[in-house]
Prior knowledge:
This protein has 326 residues and is an alpha/beta fold. The chain has twelve helices and eleven strands. The chain folds into two domains: 4-126 and 254-322, Bordetella uptake gene, domain 1 (D-Maltodextrin-Binding Protein, domain 2, 3-Layer(aba) Sandwich), CATH 3.40.190; 128-226, 3-Layer(aba) Sandwich (D-Maltodextrin-Binding Protein, domain 2), CATH 3.40.190.
Amino acid sequence: MLSRRKLLAASGASGLMPFAARAQETWPSRVIQMVVAFPPGGQADVAARPTAAALERVFGRAVPVVNRPGAGGILGSASVARAAPDGYTALMALSSLSVLPESERLMGRVPAYEVAQLAPVARITADPTVLLVSADAPWKTLEEFVSAARAQPGRITYGSAGNYSTLHVAMAMLTGAAAIDLLHVPFQGGGPALTALLSDTIQALASGPGPALPHVREGRLRALACWGRQRIPGFEAVPTFIELGYREVEFYIWSGVFLPAATPAPVQEQWRQALRLVCAEDAALQRALQAAGSPLAYQDGEAFRQFMTEDTARLTRAVQRIGRLD
């Protein structure tokens, strides 16, 4: 069983034992919230819930997941950016975190937050998105889907977690590369968009593999292609867009933990050590993510910051290609 004793030992190994000893009495001394900026059921939720449960075993405090959806993830992310920098409010974010401020500027609005207001602590997962249609849909391959879209421009509908969300950006990459016109239907999160696909309210969706996998296994949905450089575990029969000739169509939904930027460095380090510990040693967390089709892809420190820098630049270019949405 993981415990605060291991966390304190890890902190001591990194030269933080004086702080850690004080933190045993002063931090954490109350409930810690992990905010998800989307409704339950989406990719951020899939990562947040087992991670929060594992952190409870280390911190010795409740770590409830709080869903604060709205504006494609803007409202929940902004709430953490403005939260007290005391380590008691964290954000489990998706890759859309880095492009939403740019989308706000495109719309002529002042962004509700800037990425610089949030401190990256650790990446938890990094999954390619999967193109889904209903199992009852007439398209059994990507080629059939693209041919139908070209024959019916603007008629085939697809959902997303909101304008400029990760799911929207992924589909925009596909529509640009394939020269097709699809009708975008934004929702408040990946969970509601997936529900809409299951109920035939929409006809297609780019989804993280975790939420999609159970429905594909049950035969309710069909996966046509994935945005990864390699095929995804659990979706071994599903080709990548790169394999199918769309060499520029590559996209990942990553999930990561962030704190308000002004959170003291020792508290950030306590979080980082705790996340590193549970991701390395908590079997329940590892099993939960694996079973959800979203295995661990842990990264922290300079590696995560560099990953974010490169990913933000790539996604910002994609959002700028989408342009202003009136």
